[in-house]
Design goal:
about 40% helix; homodimer; about 15% strand; Aspartate Aminotransferase, domain 1; 7-stranded mixed β-sheet; 14 helices; 5-stranded mixed β-sheet; Aspartate Aminotransferase, domain 2; alpha/beta
Chain lengths: ~375, ~375
């Protein structure tokens, strides 16, 4: 069994580096998942998640699995076989929503947009008006393209048509202010490994009271026992009844991550993310990297960049590997249609800092300037 | 946000206390889930899980969710709508299998036995012969009753009838030697929070080549995208393609837990569990606690005990709470039909040691003997 993991600066699309206080919190001796002391801490975690999501939803909790399970939880609870769903597809994660909804037996209507652009409110509204779907689902922060999707126009059209609105907040939570209640969102999910600076493995989720009523009124049982919100509410609600064994250590880490967010304040944190992204874009321009997304729709925590032609021609994966091996810096390649043509640089949570941007710029200037590469470990 | 968690000796049905080396491993700085160094470690983890499960199954991996998701993964991949499944129900976890299988659209035939007893080979074989099911599913170590189920008779009858065999090994893995291949098991799942002395949150699973072929030959897609073994194989197999973001820190902890098992050796570890259970039963007899399960079918890592009448009359939860509050010791109550009548005492992984048995006996003698209770923290 190997034990020689290198130090990394994780500037890809996630996971980001974990804050040392979160690492220490996870390393505390275990208590039971039904221990009164743990249940009290879980109350605090759920309250802090409500503040961060901008909601008063009672059903707000850290699901015991990664963000893609959070996506599945939102869709399989709200959709029944033969229900209609309109999905906004602006990248890989919207695409994944279609696949998850199909597997739940739903009829999927896709509204697409070119990768790197935001969904068109009018196109979404037209599809919603035509289909009159049970659910409308889209991504707030599309991690495959770096686009920040305006939420309110689509959510409003969906609500007007009587649909439930599902929002992917995997990359936005704790990096952008969220307002689920004001936006009219019925179910949202996120991940801990992005702007929360915790390890991957948990998915904060939130369901509105209206969404919970919908689940209770289903004709058919939820296809997943593990993700059934009715059963999850037994443990994460007031009753604290055993459903599955909650991942105690991961939740101790999340509690510390949430504490860090509240100490900093969400406004300050959001501004820090914006500042780091601007510094990154300005620093990379002279090297021939151009932002994929127009300024109005750029995510602050994840910047997508068209690569200089010589980097594409030379094989971008080679340059990423050089960054990793020579400087310990991880950045992300493109996904789906954008593979080989763009990079995804994450400045998420603790990593959204001047010093990290400078480290990446230094390494890239060296590699692209043709200067002698430093020895490993520099 | 609270941060004042007490020290606990976790002698319930799980989680058990986490080994300090595992806690330290989880606290290491993060690397990416596609980092070459992490993928190499993941290779080692998968190889160690194969040894522990007693299998050469290529598809052997730590699923990114707790044991109940492992159960769901085994059943929803192997079952299609209208398939027949025979489930052995010897307690709460066999019951859960029925519910999960029903939600996958399968027709469930239950073979029951009284809680505290093992399934009857002949009854299982008769049901299998009658139903000719696609899948036969049962529990090796029934955590709700403390029964160790003999595996080979049922597995043999199932294989003879052309069925796939699913085995719950949540509580047995790393506490009892397992031999999936020799027993003829097609899909098995476990958890990390029992005899592996890791935190809850991961589910080691293993599928035979025959089971994987069955999944590939399905008429319908697997209902869960997150648990689809075809997609999981993309990341956990040779290709290492992105599916979901693996919980890196939890896997670093699991790697250390597996290293500890291999340093001790499985034979020694199993003997240590047996010795601790014997010591517990002998120590509790004079206090009026009698084992629920006959000696031939007792689990070494989880002992179920009928409570003395005065404890039942007085409310067993009160005594458990006294153990927790006055001595920091957690033991488990009964589940389902056995609630209020039995206790479940786990001596799992690192906790299966003389000193822990003595701590529990000391506390119980004090509480039941009517001696002055010590002040909190003693």
């Amino acid at each position: 069994m190997r034990s020689d993991l290198p130090r990394r600066l994780l500037l890809g699309p996630g996971p980001s580096n974990v804050h040392p206080r979160v690492l220490r919190a996870m390393g505390r001796p275990l208590v039971g998942h039904l221990d009164p002391s743990f249940l009290a801490l879980l109350d605090d975690v759920q309250a802090a998640l409500r503040r961060l999501f901008g909601t008063e939803n009672a059903f707000t909790l850290p699901l015991s699995a990664p963000g893609s399970a959070g996506m599945e939880a939102c869709l399989v609870n709200l959709l029944e076989p033969d229900d209609d769903v309109v999905v906004g597809v602006a990248g890989v994660f919207g695409e994944r929503m279609c696949e998850v909804a199909r597997r739940a037996g739903a009829r999927v209507t896709r509204v697409e947009t070119e990768p790197g652009t935001a969904l068109d409110d009018a196109a979404m509204a037209a599809a919603i008006a035509e289909v009159r779907p049970r659910v409308v689902s889209f991504v707030h922060a599309e991690t495959s393209t770096g686009v920040c999707q305006p939420v309110e126009g689509i959510a409003c059209a969906a609500r007007d048509a009587g649909a439930f609105v599902v929002l992917d907040c995997v990359t936005s939570l704790a990096g952008l202010p969220l307002s689920l209640d004001a936006w009219g969102i019925d179910a949202a999910y996120s991940g801990t490994q992005k702007c929360l600076s915790c390890p991957p493995g948990l998915s904060p989720v939130s369901f509105s009271a209206r969404a919970i009523e919908r689940v209770q009124a289903r004709r058919t049982p939820v296809q997943s026992w593990f993700l059934d919100v009715g059963l999850l509410a037994g443990y994460f609600g007031g009753e604290r009844a055993y459903h599955h064994t909650a991942p105690v250590s991961a939740i101790l880490g999340l509690a510390e991550g949430l504490r860090l967010v509240e100490e900093e304040g969400m406004e300050t944190r959001a501004a820090r993310h914006r500042g780091a992204a601007e510094q990154l874009i300005e620093g990379l321009r002279p090297l021939g990297f151009e932002p994929l997304v127009d300024a109005a729709h750029r995510l602050p925590m994840l910047t997508t960049l068209r690569l200089p032609e010589h980097v594409v021609a030379d094989g971008e994966a080679k340059l990423r590997r050089a960054l990793l091996d020579r400087y310990g810096i991880e950045v992300g390649g493109g996904l789906g249609k954008l593979a080989g043509r763009i990079w995804r640089v994450g400045l998420m949570g603790e990593n959204a800092r001047v010093i990290n941007v400078e480290a990446l710029l230094f390494a890239l200037r060296r590699e692209l300037g043709g200067a002698r590469a430093p020895t490993p470990g520099v």
